[in-house]
Amino acid sequence: MGVETIRKPADTRVAVKPAFDLALRMGDNALILAQRNAAWCGHAPALEEDIALANVALDLIGQAKLWLGYAGELEGEGRSADDLAFLRDGREFRNVLLVETPNGDFGQTTMRQWLYDSWHHFMLEGLKASSDERIVEIAEKSAKEVAYHLERSTDLVIRLGDGTDESHKRMQDALDYLWPFARELDVADDADRAIAAAGIGPDLASVAEKALAYRSEALSQATLTAPTDAVPRKGGKAGVHSEAFGFMLAEMQVLQRTHPGVKW
């Protein structure tokens, strides 16, 4: 069975199990998307959306805490969820590039959320059948929140896509830009294949099929067209991130990096 190696702070290497890979990836996706959404607090175009984005961010932070907490237990090196969130370097993060893309305008933020939600929902449904009981528990809890996230983001994509000429253009531009990033969610690497082979998580191809079917129906209602020749933008799951991610991570980690071990 293939396993991935991750560089630890002490510059040693440790083979990680499929369950650790999965927990780390799911936790990092949730954490980084939460950080991006939280930046809208006080800046959204309407009070209702300001509150909604903050609530979605809080849900994702709660999920990140569960996933990263479990990853720390599996690693067995005494690192907590906080340690994994605030004391890792950029190359150690395993989130997909989609969730770290800059917020852009409200249309781009909405489209990014929807593309992730429409994968996240079906991924969690698959994880409910995991051979790992803890993963099943986290997936079942998270799925209740993500069902709301998907309902909300789908409604916005349809309303804005099939809205005014301006809102339609912004949503189409956002879709054209983000679609290649979303495809990284569907491309399996060695770790993904090991996760599926061990029964820890579903085969990504089956998740992708369901997500694409859902997206096709919603995009039809939104009068939006997905690119047909988009090449996947990938690298995040291997620790290769964007320049924008580095700036975001520095902002997110500054307190713990400046005052190690600080507590409120």
Folded structure, characterized:
This protein is an all-alpha fold and 264 residues long. The chain has one domain: Ferritin (Up-down Bundle). It contains ten helices and two strands; from the N terminus they run ββαααααααααα. It has helices at 18-38, 47-75, 81-86, 97-100, 106-127, 133-161, 165-182, 190-197, 204-222, 243-258; strands spanning 5-7, 13-15. The chain has a two-stranded antiparallel sheet with strand order 1-2. Helix 2 runs antiparallel to helix 6 and helix 6 runs parallel beside helix 9 (204-222). It starts with a strand and ends in a 6-residue tail after the last helix. One of its GO terms (biological process) is phenylacetate catabolic process. It comes from Flavisphingopyxis soli. It holds the Pfam family PaaA_PaaC. This is Phenylacetate-CoA oxygenase subunit PaaC.
Short description:
Pfam families: PaaA_PaaC. This protein is mainly alpha-helical and 264 residues long. The protein is built from ten helices and two strands.
Beta-strand proportion = under 5%
Question: What is the average per-residue confidence, as pLDDT, rounded to a whole number?
Answer: 92
Spell out the helices and strands N to C.
EEHHHHHHHHHH
Low-confidence stretches: 1-16
Approximate helicity band? 55-70%
Number of strands: 2
Distance between the amino and carboxyl termini: 43 Å
Q: Return the domain count.
A: 1
Q: Largest sheet, if any?
A: 2 strands, antiparallel
- What class would the helix/strand composition place it in? mainly alpha
Q: Mind telling me the CATH class?
A: Mainly Alpha
- Number of helices in the DSSP assignment: 10
Q: According to CATH, what is the topology? A: Ferritin
| CATH homology superfamily | Ferritin, core subunit, four-helix bundle
The whole-angstrom Rg is 18 Å
Write the CATH architecture name.
Answer: Up-down Bundle
Q: Strand sequence of the main sheet, in spatial order?
A: 1-2
Shape: globular
